[in-house]
Request: fold
Amino acid sequence: MNSSHVRKGHQFRFIVAPEDGAQYDDLKDMTRRLMNKMEQDLNTKLDWVAVDHHNMNRPGFAGGPNS
Reply:
């Protein structure tokens, strides 16, 4: 598939959760490798961003103590 034939404007979101993060030395590197693999599998360059969240157990947050 040539990237010029890919329709623009689509957005996909997914979460790479660190439940098993202790078995990885570097979650940022793992995310980069994951995205590189996706680009190879799709045979196209992807524009992507990632966010490194901290303090996930605050009250009211999904998965936090008051959710």
Observations:
- The chain has a mean pLDDT of 75.
- The chain is about 25% helix and 0% strand.
